[in-house]
Amino acid sequence: MRRLTVLLTALFAAVPFIEGCAARSSLDRLNDQPAQEYRGHYTRNADGSWFRPCGAAAADAAWWVTVTGTAVSQLDSARKAGQFAEDRSSFVHWRAVLTRGGEVGPPGATALLVRDILVVRPAAPDDCAAP
For residues 89 and 121, is the Cβ–Cβ distance under 8 A? Predict the structure, then answer.
């Protein structure tokens, strides 16, 4: 009985480690994927960070946004320069990895893992017109 108790204790102690490895491998897999360019409108507010790509229908749900790496300082610089403000829509052109499996953001939601911001500025009516 003592051996069983020791074995179960070791097993339960390993569960958080195993779960942590699984989450890390999902993020590592995303970081290994090549980024694509996306253009559209981005809003960050108390409800989260949301992106609606150019060409999306009005009924389509916005995508969750997670800003990482270099993009964090780029967004902060844009905020300081007045190109981006919380609670207001901004036009963005960025490089990101699209996810649909809940690796980042709400479970099951479409989400972007943003790596690099190419353009950020206040939204304008013709933002999504062909470049």
Answer: no
**Which pLDDT score, from 0 to 100, does residue 32 have?**
73
Give the 3-state secondary structure of 57-84. CCCCCCEEEEECCHHHHHHHHHHHCCCC
Question: What dihedral do alpha carbons 55, 115, 104, 93 form, nearest 10°?
Answer: -20
* pLDDT tens-digit series, residues 64-104: 998 988 999 999 999 899 888 888 999 999 999 988 777 77
Q: Which option is the CATH number for 35-122: 2.60.40, 2.40.10, 3.40.50, 2.40.50?
A: 2.40.50
Whether the CB-CB separation of 65 and 49 falls below 8 Å is answered with yes
Query: 10 Å Cβ neighbour count for 20?
Result: 10
